[in-house]
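Final report, section 2: Outcomes. Of the targets proposed, SDR family oxidoreductase is the one most frequently requested by collaborating groups, and we therefore present its record in full.
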Amino acid sequence: MERHLLAIGYGYSARALTRRLLAQGWRVTGTTRSADRAAAMVSDGVTPLVWPGADLGTAVMGASHILLSAAPDAAGDPVLTAAPEVFDRPLPGLRWLGYLSTTGVYGDHAGGWVDETTPLTPGTTRGHQRVAAEAGWQALAAAQGLPLHIFRLAGIYGPGRGPFRKVQDGTAQRIVKPGQYFSRIHVEDIAQVLGASINRPEPGAIYNVCDDDPSPPQDVLTHAAELLGVDLPPVVPIDEAQMTPMARSFYAESKRVRNDRMKHELGVQLAYPTYREGLAALLAEHLRSGD
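The predicted structure is given below as tokens.
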């Protein structure tokens, strides 16, 4: 059977995976809500599907592998809400189904360690929505025998999503909350993990996708400034920081996420095991593009 990935929600992570698969001779179809975005997808080598609107069921039936990366909202998971019948049936040609979730499902652990066996105790609205979406896909997979794999992603960074521009123009702030830890993952390592799972499927598996060094956020900005050779961003205590509600919600939870299962079961060796390697790789991209 042809290797054909359907990416429902052709976003940042799906695009990184797509680049790898196209180089290996795959065919890729991706959904988007925007006709303008569809034209850009064609230039990526991807067949666009404007959805809602187009026939998602036919695309699902024609795919050997499916990546679900559309985020849930207050109404629930967009696929399970808008087109539940598409997956509520046997799909004998489907070899792999991946769902991109978030480590936010674990909630706050006051800087303690979590792994895939840790109970899900989300503390934010987004975390609760992800827990519900995971449960919905797990129930559907159990009912229909779908080869579901769940990937709980840490904070994503990569080309176009680095800290250098704000550090360089002086708008960055080192917001300090004692005991605060974030886990991160470079987008190319996300693509590597997804590719490894596709090559070594284990239906029902759940993987944390993060690097080896959960760190306070101010440490990352300090390192970025040192790489650029500019003054360090000012230190601002959390209770004095001006942030959007979404940004502040990230500081409401602190945890360090283990990635042992990802490494041992999938044989992954991270290209960017800490933010230091990741930022070093992004610096040349930043200097070239200004992102």
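The two ends are 40 Å apart (CA to CA).
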